[in-house]
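Minutes, project check-in
Item: structure for the 265-residue chain
Input as provided by the requester:
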Amino acid sequence: MAEQHAMGMACGLALEGKKPVVCMQTTFMQRAFDQLLHDACYMDLPVTVLGVRAGFAGYDGSTHHGLYDIPYLRSFPNMQIIYPANSAEAEQVLAQRLAAPKGPMVILHPYEPILATEPAVGQVEPCGLSVAAEGQDGYLIALGNTLASAWELKSKLQQSGKDFGIICIQSIKPFPEARLKELLLPGMDIVTLEESVLAGGLGTAVLETLSDADIRVRILRTGVNDAFVRPGSKQECSQEAGISVAQIYEQIGQRWPEYLETTHG
């Protein structure tokens, strides 16, 4: 109830012309569902929510993982959803938002240590994505909390003689559809990586973009498939959900057997 009260107070401040910022675990946003939808989105107020623990959330409990925020927030009219690619981008996004807030926005952030050297992300384009690496055979599409896994998976795919690029999505809503249509060419293979339930998540957004544009590619979505995940470290939760890098590589080989045939050949 305290989290709901905090959200209600934030909406009240917005009505007074101020710039409220609320910081809460993404699992608590679920408990303020109606206030986000009715008080922030319906009224199109400049409310900013910092959603921490987006993705796997450690040892606090299965219900503390932020695995459901992207699917339900995508359905809210007027809602903007941003997942910064790294800590530097998070600071920049927040500074820009505080300088000129418009409409409701959720800024998501993972629950994990910031690495001394964060994975290369490339230049974030105005549309809300970055091409971290170019690729001829296909692309790995990730969010900030799966970018390191994308780089590791790219290296493993090179063993199969496959040259995959990496796209990091920062703007989940609005989604950078036009730019993706330029990057994802017919005949490519696409793998999406997310610490989210598959239904309605990042992979779904990519599928919708490709389907609406009638772009014919092969795509493998990886994420949490209709299950609760027990508390644990990022590595333990990834293993349980079947989305560790090794497990995703195995899924790719099962979906597209010629990849493994190339490796063993």
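Outcome recorded: The chain has a mean pLDDT of 90.
No further action items on this chain.
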